[in-house]
Amino acid sequence: MINDSEIILRKTEVSDLEFFFVFQLDNEANYLAAFTSKDPTDKNSLSSEVHKILDDRTINMQAIIVDKIIAGSVAKFEMEGEAGITYWIDKKHWGKRCCDNST
User: Fold this and answer.
1) CA 41 to CA 31: how far, in whole Å?
2) Residues 6 or more apart in contact with residue 81 via CB below 8 angstroms
3) Cβ(55)–Cβ(88) under 8 Å?
4) pTM for the predicted model, two decimal places
5) For the chain, domain boundaries
6) Domain 7-93 has CATH 3.90.830.10
7) How many CB atoms lie within 10 A of CB 75?
8) How do residues 10-29 score in pLDDT, each as one tens digit?
């Protein structure tokens, strides 16, 4: 449970790529993801893709920060005139619940 954790969203920065690259190396996470790289071990490909995303004004990509550590990303995008949401959570945070004050 991460009830006492500080969770914030902030605009994605190029330096966040190092974290995103490590996240995408997990085979199970890649299998479950809607959008993946052809070769998850190709850091240059990820870098190129993230730079395109950061330059695209129709995409709002945010880093998810838990206790000052990058825990994932979330992005709003448009596809064929429809809004969509995509996210990637570091596997270390899978299954954790937030903001549940019940005992």
Assistant:
1) 14
2) none
3) no
4) 0.80
5) 7-93
6) no
7) 17
8) 999 999 999 998 998 888 88
